[in-house]
Amino acid sequence: MTDVVVVVLNYKTPDLAVQAARSAAAAMKDLGGAILLVDNASPDESFDQMQTQVATTDWPDHLTVQVLQSGRNGGFGAGNNFGIRAGRTLCPQAEFVYILNPDAQVEQGAITALVDYLHAHPKAAIAGSWIYGENGQDDCSAFRFPGIASEFEASIRFGPVTKLLKNYVVPLHLPSASGPVGWIVGASMLVRTDVLSRIGLFDETYFLYFEETDLCLRAYRAGYEVHFVRESKVCHIGSVSTGMGTWARTPQYWYESRWYYYSKNYNRLYAIAATAMNVLGASLCRVRRWVERKPNTDAHRFLRDLIRHDVQALFRPTPPTSIQTITDLPATRLQTSAE
How does 64-95 read in b/e, with b if 16+ C-beta sit within 10 Å? Predict the structure, then answer.
């Protein structure tokens, strides 16, 4: 039986996190391992609530299910890293790590489909699911890596430009078949444990956003592939913890993650060029919308905040990389549901 460590990272959504864990357990009839619910230092009663719900749930006998406290809110990457390292301690024989968002529900067979796919494709290090919303609509599950051309295409939002730059459009929407892509979302992501041992875990310099893009790029540069698996289906409510869909103004950490991704993985001149293409495209889009008498749909002060952030970042050193190894033990004691 293949062992998998499932990590469900919670921040103020304890009920959803437990529901996600239950859906994962139901989908692991033919898989062994552990399901770890990690609370990312939520300022509410999340940890206690998850402990209570886990203790009163009838879990499959072949799975270990525990609630852990990370002890700090270091963001998506840091919280999941805590769970991955704890899983290494609790289930050292696990062949895979499965990252599952707390606002996601796994369909029957979804995790097994990812495991079987990676077994059948040895060059693939990371596999992601077909993500769909509550109403059954397809969410974007697979992507190309972002770059200078894609920044212009995404910001100008003009059909002829998109057609011209079709090979640089980041969202791949729903690929017609399973296969290699650039990167996949962290809402449902299966990763080989031995690959994490080679390339490291999520870069904890990212607080939120771009961390899974960065991990997939590191895997790609190490000679591995990232695949979208159409046979694996997961329902995702989306952005419950982050509130991304309801942002009135883009938070500072998004700009920081974007700048760090480009400057770290390419260079600072590349990051500036990417921003310049974004600003140019967005400015042309606004002119077109003004001529067409259509409202601007950008987040409040998006361009102003983007320019201000990146100009300031240009005169600061690039933040240091913080990539932990899978063998690093969590910094805080494992507070489990058994205590």
Answer: bbbbbbbeeebbbbbbbbbbbbbbbebbeebb
> For residues 50 and 18, is the Cβ–Cβ distance under 8 A?
yes
User: What's the CATH superfamily of 3-138+174-241?
Assistant: Spore Coat Polysaccharide Biosynthesis Protein SpsA; Chain A (3.90.550.10)
Domain borders along the chain are: 3-138+174-241, 252-314
Say which residues have a Cβ less than 8 Å from residue 50's Cβ, sequence separation at least 6.
10, 14, 17, 18, 37, 39, 67, 337
Using one digit for the tens of pLDDT, what is the confidence trace for 47-96?
Answer: 999 999 999 999 999 999 999 999 999 999 999 999 999 999 999 999 99
By CB atoms closer than 10 A (0-12, 13-18, 19+), residue 167 is exposed
Better-scored residue on pLDDT, 338 or 301 = 301
Strand-pair partners of 158: none
**Chain centre to alpha carbon of residue 61:** 29
Q: Residue 153: which residues within 8 A CB-CB, separation 6 or more?
A: 161, 162, 165, 168, 169, 281
